[in-house]
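To: structure desk
From: M.T.
Subject: fold request, one chain
Message: Could you run this one when you get a chance? Sequence is below, nothing fancy, just the single chain.
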Amino acid sequence: MSILTKDSYLKCYRFYGVKHSIVSIGNYIDFELSKRAMFLPILHSTMQYYCKWQNDYLKLKYWIDYCAFLHRILQQNGSCDEIYFKQSLSLMTKLNSQDAKRAILDSIISILDYEGMLQREYFCSLCEKELTNYVSLDENYMLYCSSCKKDKLINFDKVKKLFLLKSSAFFSDEEIDDFLELLNV
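Reply: Done. C-alpha coordinates follow.
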Protein backbone atom coordinates (compact mmCIF):
# COMPACT_ATOMS: atom_id res chain seq x y z
CA MET A 1 0.00 0.00 0.00
CA SER A 2 1.21 3.56 -0.63
CA ILE A 3 0.76 6.51 1.73
CA LEU A 4 1.32 10.20 1.01
CA THR A 5 2.68 12.10 4.01
CA LYS A 6 3.85 15.68 4.35
CA ASP A 7 7.38 14.87 3.21
CA SER A 8 7.33 11.41 1.63
CA TYR A 9 5.47 8.82 -0.37
CA LEU A 10 5.70 5.63 1.66
CA LYS A 11 5.31 2.07 0.53
CA CYS A 12 4.30 -0.32 3.27
CA TYR A 13 2.66 -3.65 3.98
CA ARG A 14 -0.80 -3.95 5.52
CA PHE A 15 -2.30 -7.22 6.70
CA TYR A 16 -6.01 -7.53 5.95
CA GLY A 17 -7.70 -10.04 8.20
CA VAL A 18 -10.87 -10.43 10.23
CA LYS A 19 -9.77 -7.93 12.87
CA HIS A 20 -8.32 -5.41 10.45
CA SER A 21 -10.42 -2.79 8.72
CA ILE A 22 -9.98 -2.10 5.03
CA VAL A 23 -8.23 1.14 4.11
CA SER A 24 -9.54 2.31 0.73
CA ILE A 25 -7.80 4.52 -1.79
CA GLY A 26 -7.88 8.19 -0.88
CA ASN A 27 -8.64 7.90 2.83
CA TYR A 28 -7.11 10.40 5.22
CA ILE A 29 -5.63 8.28 8.00
CA ASP A 30 -3.55 8.39 11.14
CA PHE A 31 -1.20 5.42 11.37
CA GLU A 32 1.90 3.85 12.82
CA LEU A 33 4.66 2.00 11.00
CA SER A 34 6.83 -0.81 12.33
CA LYS A 35 10.17 -1.11 10.59
CA ARG A 36 11.43 -4.54 9.63
CA ALA A 37 14.80 -5.48 8.25
CA MET A 38 14.70 -6.75 4.66
CA PHE A 39 10.96 -6.04 4.19
CA LEU A 40 8.50 -3.21 3.77
CA PRO A 41 7.43 -1.40 6.95
CA ILE A 42 4.18 -2.73 8.43
CA LEU A 43 1.22 -0.37 8.67
CA HIS A 44 -0.86 -0.72 11.84
CA SER A 45 -3.00 1.24 14.30
CA THR A 46 -4.85 2.99 11.50
CA MET A 47 -7.61 5.46 12.15
CA GLN A 48 -9.58 6.94 9.26
CA TYR A 49 -10.74 10.55 9.35
CA TYR A 50 -14.13 11.29 7.86
CA CYS A 51 -14.98 14.15 5.51
CA LYS A 52 -18.62 15.06 5.01
CA TRP A 53 -18.28 15.00 1.22
CA GLN A 54 -17.44 11.26 1.36
CA ASN A 55 -21.19 10.52 1.45
CA ASP A 56 -21.54 12.10 -2.00
CA TYR A 57 -20.81 9.32 -4.50
CA LEU A 58 -19.69 11.65 -7.31
CA LYS A 59 -17.34 13.66 -5.11
CA LEU A 60 -15.86 10.44 -3.75
CA LYS A 61 -15.45 9.06 -7.27
CA TYR A 62 -13.62 12.19 -8.45
CA TRP A 63 -11.46 12.18 -5.30
CA ILE A 64 -10.45 8.55 -5.96
CA ASP A 65 -9.67 9.44 -9.60
CA TYR A 66 -7.51 12.34 -8.36
CA CYS A 67 -5.68 10.00 -5.96
CA ALA A 68 -5.01 7.55 -8.81
CA PHE A 69 -3.65 10.46 -10.92
CA LEU A 70 -1.45 11.57 -8.02
CA HIS A 71 -0.20 8.00 -7.53
CA ARG A 72 0.90 7.86 -11.20
CA ILE A 73 2.77 11.18 -10.84
CA LEU A 74 4.46 10.18 -7.58
CA GLN A 75 5.52 6.79 -8.93
CA GLN A 76 7.21 8.50 -11.88
CA ASN A 77 8.92 11.01 -9.60
CA GLY A 78 10.73 8.84 -7.11
CA SER A 79 10.76 11.78 -4.68
CA CYS A 80 7.99 13.66 -2.93
CA ASP A 81 7.76 17.32 -2.03
CA GLU A 82 5.35 18.84 0.47
CA ILE A 83 3.28 20.44 -2.31
CA TYR A 84 1.50 17.13 -3.09
CA PHE A 85 0.33 16.72 0.51
CA LYS A 86 -0.69 20.39 0.82
CA GLN A 87 -2.53 20.29 -2.50
CA SER A 88 -4.40 17.16 -1.43
CA LEU A 89 -5.40 18.65 1.92
CA SER A 90 -6.52 21.83 0.20
CA LEU A 91 -8.58 19.80 -2.25
CA MET A 92 -10.21 17.84 0.58
CA THR A 93 -11.35 21.15 2.09
CA LYS A 94 -12.57 22.52 -1.24
CA LEU A 95 -14.68 19.41 -1.86
CA ASN A 96 -16.87 20.42 1.10
CA SER A 97 -18.14 23.49 -0.72
CA GLN A 98 -17.05 23.52 -4.37
CA ASP A 99 -17.95 21.59 -7.48
CA ALA A 100 -15.86 18.41 -7.39
CA LYS A 101 -14.87 18.34 -11.07
CA ARG A 102 -13.67 21.94 -11.07
CA ALA A 103 -11.76 21.57 -7.80
CA ILE A 104 -10.11 18.37 -9.07
CA LEU A 105 -9.14 19.95 -12.40
CA ASP A 106 -7.67 23.02 -10.68
CA SER A 107 -5.60 20.80 -8.38
CA ILE A 108 -4.39 18.61 -11.22
CA ILE A 109 -3.32 21.65 -13.25
CA SER A 110 -1.43 23.04 -10.22
CA ILE A 111 0.43 19.75 -9.82
CA LEU A 112 1.22 19.49 -13.53
CA ASP A 113 2.50 23.07 -13.45
CA TYR A 114 4.72 22.28 -10.46
CA GLU A 115 6.01 19.19 -12.29
CA GLY A 116 6.80 21.30 -15.36
CA MET A 117 4.47 19.15 -17.46
CA LEU A 118 2.28 21.96 -18.81
CA GLN A 119 3.19 23.03 -22.30
CA ARG A 120 4.26 26.70 -22.25
CA GLU A 121 5.18 27.05 -25.89
CA TYR A 122 1.92 27.07 -27.76
CA PHE A 123 2.80 25.07 -30.85
CA CYS A 124 1.25 21.79 -31.97
CA SER A 125 3.28 18.86 -30.66
CA LEU A 126 2.92 17.06 -33.99
CA CYS A 127 3.03 19.55 -36.87
CA GLU A 128 4.62 22.42 -34.88
CA LYS A 129 2.15 25.02 -36.17
CA GLU A 130 1.14 27.78 -33.81
CA LEU A 131 -1.97 26.84 -31.84
CA THR A 132 -5.16 28.82 -32.46
CA ASN A 133 -8.91 28.46 -31.90
CA TYR A 134 -9.37 24.87 -30.71
CA VAL A 135 -6.85 22.36 -29.39
CA SER A 136 -6.74 18.83 -28.05
CA LEU A 137 -4.62 17.23 -25.36
CA ASP A 138 -3.11 13.77 -25.06
CA GLU A 139 -2.35 11.57 -22.06
CA ASN A 140 1.13 13.11 -21.82
CA TYR A 141 -0.43 16.58 -21.48
CA MET A 142 0.83 17.71 -24.88
CA LEU A 143 -1.28 20.12 -26.96
CA TYR A 144 -2.30 19.47 -30.55
CA CYS A 145 -3.96 21.62 -33.20
CA SER A 146 -7.44 20.75 -34.40
CA SER A 147 -6.16 19.34 -37.72
CA CYS A 148 -3.71 16.89 -36.07
CA LYS A 149 -5.97 15.56 -33.34
CA LYS A 150 -9.70 15.94 -33.75
CA ASP A 151 -11.14 14.30 -30.64
CA LYS A 152 -12.47 16.47 -27.77
CA LEU A 153 -11.48 19.92 -28.97
CA ILE A 154 -11.25 22.69 -26.35
CA ASN A 155 -11.10 26.45 -26.81
CA PHE A 156 -7.40 27.38 -26.91
CA ASP A 157 -7.82 30.74 -25.13
CA LYS A 158 -9.52 28.97 -22.22
CA VAL A 159 -6.70 26.40 -22.05
CA LYS A 160 -4.13 29.21 -21.87
CA LYS A 161 -6.12 30.87 -19.07
CA LEU A 162 -6.39 27.57 -17.21
CA PHE A 163 -2.64 26.98 -17.46
CA LEU A 164 -1.91 30.54 -16.34
CA LEU A 165 -4.51 31.05 -13.58
CA LYS A 166 -4.98 27.40 -12.53
CA SER A 167 -8.71 28.07 -12.34
CA SER A 168 -11.42 26.39 -14.37
CA ALA A 169 -14.08 28.97 -13.48
CA PHE A 170 -14.55 30.05 -17.11
CA PHE A 171 -15.13 26.50 -18.46
CA SER A 172 -18.61 25.09 -19.03
CA ASP A 173 -19.49 21.80 -17.34
CA GLU A 174 -19.17 19.99 -20.68
CA GLU A 175 -15.69 21.45 -21.24
CA ILE A 176 -14.66 20.35 -17.74
CA ASP A 177 -15.85 16.81 -18.53
CA ASP A 178 -13.94 16.84 -21.82
CA PHE A 179 -10.77 18.14 -20.19
CA LEU A 180 -10.87 15.53 -17.41
CA GLU A 181 -11.45 12.82 -20.01
CA LEU A 182 -8.44 14.02 -22.01
CA LEU A 183 -6.35 13.90 -18.82
CA ASN A 184 -7.53 10.32 -18.16
CA VAL A 185 -9.10 11.32 -14.85
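Reply (cont.): The helical segments are 57-77, 82-94, 100-115, 156-165, 173-182. Let me know if you need anything else for the meeting.
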